[in-house]
C-alpha cells in the first residue's frame, strides 16, 4: 500500500511542476508515458541533426568559394554538435546513444522527413538554411521552455546556433540573387523544390495529429502544428519578397481579416509516402548512416579496449 | 612567378587539398566526437589555405588565373578553383584518396607533425603575413598532432584489428613522408632570404617526434622506400598522382560553371 | 523544344548515363569474361546514345547547348557534355551509383528487359532513324538481357551469399522499376504520332519476362513501393538523385575545359 | 636406364624443333627450364595486359568526346581480351589462371613497368597508344615466330590489334595537335613524361640483361633489348616530327654513319626503382587488382557452385 501512496504523491508533485511551468529534472520521478514520449521526441530530434548532415555535406567538397566552404563545413559540424547535446539529453532518460543509433539505422525511430529530399544545387545550401532551419526554429523556440530540463537547456543553445545558420543561408541566397541570371534561376528552382516540404515540417494538420494533445498537456510541445505553420508562413513571405523569389503557391495571399497569410494545402499523400519510407532519399540516408556506423565499429571497439586497458593499469 | 608566391602556393595547396580529403569524412566518421574533430582540422587547414592563397596572389598577381572581365571571383578562389592539377604545388601525401580511419590517423600524424615543426620556424619569417599565419597555425597544428597522436596510441593498443589496420595504413603514408622534407629550389631560395623555411631542417625534429609516438605505441616503424616521382618531379613541381585531377574535378565543378558568379 | 527531340533525349540519356555507370566497372569485374561482357554492354549503349543524341539535335537544333563561335564540338558532344543535370531526361534507375555485382545484374536485367520491349515496338516508328536505331538495338538488348538473366540465375542458385546479395540488390532496383513504365506527356504525344512508344504499353510484357526469370531462379519478387519524385517530378522531367550531378562533374570535366577543343 | 635414354631422345627432338624454327606444342616434351621460363614470360605478358587496363580505364569516364570514349572503352576491352588469350596460352603449360592471378596480386610475378606510371591527362591516352603500344609492338612482333605454338599464335592476333591501337593513339594526338594551344601543350607534356619510360620498356641494356641469352637460344626471344630499342627509336623519331612534338632528349641525333639515331641513356636508377616496386603507381596498381579480385570472390564461388549443381542435375 505504501508504494501506491508514494506513487500517487510523486505523480501529484510531477503534475504540480508541470502546472507551474517548472522543469522536470533527470532525477525527478516521471510517468513512464512522459519518459517514453520524451525519449521518442528528443531522439527523433537528435537523429534529424545527424541525418541532416548528409544533404549539406553533399556540397562541402563542391562549394564554389572557399569562404562558403568554410561556412558550410562549420555549419555541418554544428549539426554534429547539436546531435551530441541531444543524445546526451536523451541519455539522462536512461537510454544510451548506441541504443538510439541502432534504433535509427534499423528504421525503428524516425527523423525529420525534410532530409529525405535531395540537395541538387548549391542554392539548396542557402534554401535549407533559410527555409528548413527557419521552420526548425519555429518548431524549436517554444521548446526552450519545454518541461524537461536537459531538453530545454539543449534547445536554448541549439536555437541560438540555428538562427545564425538561418541568417547565413538567407545571406547566401541574397548574394546569389545579386549574381548572374543562372544563379538567380538556381535560387528560384531550389525554393520551388523546398517550399512545400518545409511547410510539411510542422507535421500533419491538427485534426490528423495524434500526439499533439498529450504532448501539450505535458509541456513537451507548446503550440499546435497548424499554429506553427501559420507563424512560419507569415514570417517567410516578406523575406521571399525581399529576396525576389516567388513562392510556388498560387493560393498564397494576405488575408486582411485574419491579419495573416492564407496558403494552399500541402500534398499530404506525398508527406505520408515520405514518412513511411518511400521518399526520394529515405533508403539512401539510412544506408549512409548504417554504413558509417558499421565501418566505424572496429574503431569504437578499439577505443573501448584501450580505455579498459588504461583503467586496469591505473588500478594497478 | 615570384618565389614568395610559389612558396605560399606550396603551403596553401598542402592545406587546401588535405582539407578537402578531411572534409570528405564529414558525416562518415566512426562517432560524432570524431566527426566534430575531423571537421575542426579541415576548417583550420582551410583557413590557413585562404590566408596563404591571398598572400600568394598579393606577392605576385601574375599567378592568379585570368577570369572574364568583371568577374567578382576573389584571388583566393581564382587560385583554388581555376588552376589545373599541374599548377598545384602540394605534396602527394595531401591528395591521396582516403582510406580507413587508421589511414586518416596515420596520415594526420605525419602531416601535422611536419607542418607544426615547419610553422614553428616560419613564425620567425621576415614576411609579416607568413609569420602571422604560422604563429596562429602553430596552435592549430599542435591540436591536430595531439588528436592524431592520441588516436595513434589508441589504435596501436586497442584491438588486434586496429593495430593491424594501423600498421597497414602506415606503409602507404610513410612512402610519401620523405617528400615533405625534400628541399625544392624555391624553398631553398626563400629560406636563404629569411622568408621561408627549408623543410629539410625540420626532418630530424619530426623524426624524433614520430619515433616517440611509435615507441610509446609499441609499433615498429615500417621500413619503406619513398615513392618515385616522374623523372624526379614530384608534388612540389606539379607532378601528382592520378587522384588529384579527380579531386579537382569535384572541387572546382560549381565554381567553374559560374566564372561570373557571386557567392 | 520539339517532342521528337525531347523523346530522343530520353532514350539517349538512359543509354548514356547507364553506359557511364557500366563503364565504371571496367577493370573492376569479378573476372575477365565479365569485364569483357560489361564493357560490351556499355559500348552498345554508348553507340545507341550517340545516334539518338544526333537525332535529337537534328530534330530540334535549339536544344543543343550554345558553344563559343567556331567551336568544333559536334552536337552529340555538346548535348552530352554541356547540359546540366536538370536537362538530362534519363530515368533515375540509370544514374544510381554502382553497388556490387549483384546490383549490376539486377539493374541490367530490369533495364535491358524494359528497353528491349520498347525497342521491339520502336522498330516500327515512322521516324526512319529511330526505327533503325531500335532495330539494331533489339539485337544488342537481347544479348544484354540474356547475359543478365544467366547471371541472375547463377547468383540465385549459386551460394547462400550470392542469393542474399541478389535479394538485397533487388529491393533498390525494383523501387525504381515503375518509373520506366510511367508515361511522360512527351511520350504520350510521340506515341500518338506513331513516332515513339508509350512505355506503359510494354509494362505487362516486361513483367511477364521478369516473372519468368524470378520463377526459374526461385526468387520471390520483393514487394516495394516506388521511390517518390519531387512534387511528382522524376527523371524524365529532369528531377534526379544527388548522384547525377556528381556523375556529370566527372563525365564533363575535360570536355568543358576545352570548349574549342578537337578530339 | 631406359628413362634416361628416353629423356635424352626427347631433349634431342626438342632441340631439333627449336633449331628448325618449328613450334613446340603443349603435348610435346620440353625441358623444365624452358617451361618455367615460358610461364614467367607469358604470365608477365598477360599480367601486363590486365594491369595495363587501369591507367587507361582511369580516363574512360572523363573522355572528352563520345567518339573517343567508345574508342577507349573498346581498347581497354581488347586488353582484357589479350589477357584472356595469354592466360589461356599459359594454362597449356600447366598453371591455372587463378594461380597466376594470385602470383600477381601477391607480388610474386611482375608486369611491364610502364604501367607503374600515372595517366595525368587525356593526351596520355594517345601517348600510350603511340609510344607504349608502339614499343610493345616492337617487342612483340618477333614473338609471333616464337618457338612455343600457343604463345606465337596468341601474339599474332594481339599484334594485329595492337597496331590498330597504336594508329588510334597517334590519330588522337594528331587531332589534338590541330586543336587549341592548350591541347598542344597537353600532348607535349604527355610525350615528355612517357618518352623515357617507353624506352625503358625494352628492358636493361644487353650487358645488364640476365635472361636474354638463354631466351634467344630457345627462340622465346628473338632480338636483344638494345636492338629492339634502336628499332623503336628509329621508327618513332620521324613520327614525332610529323606530329610536331619534341622528344625530351638533347642527345637524340641522326647518325649518318650508322644509318640510325643516336640517343641518350635512360635513367636506369629510376628503372630499377620502379621494377623493385617503388614506382609512382606500383602499390596502387596491385592493390586495385587485389581489391577487384577479392571483391569478385563471392561471384566466382557462386558461378562454381551453380555449375556444379547443373552438372549434378544433368547426371541425374
TrEMBL record, chains A, D:
Signal peptide residue numbers: none
Pfam families: PaaA_PaaC
InterPro entries on file: Aromatic_CoA_ox/epox, Ferritin-like, Ferritin-like_SF, PaaA, PaaA_PaaC
One GO MF term attached to the UniProt entry: phenylacetyl-CoA 1,2-epoxidase activity
One term under GO cellular component: cytosol
GO biological process terms on file: phenylacetate catabolic process
Name of the protein in its database record: Putative phenylacetic acid degradation protein PaaA/phenylacetate-CoA oxygenase, PaaG subunit
Organism encoding this protein: Phytohabitans flavus
Upper lineage: Bacteria, Bacillati, Actinomycetota, Actinomycetes, Micromonosporales
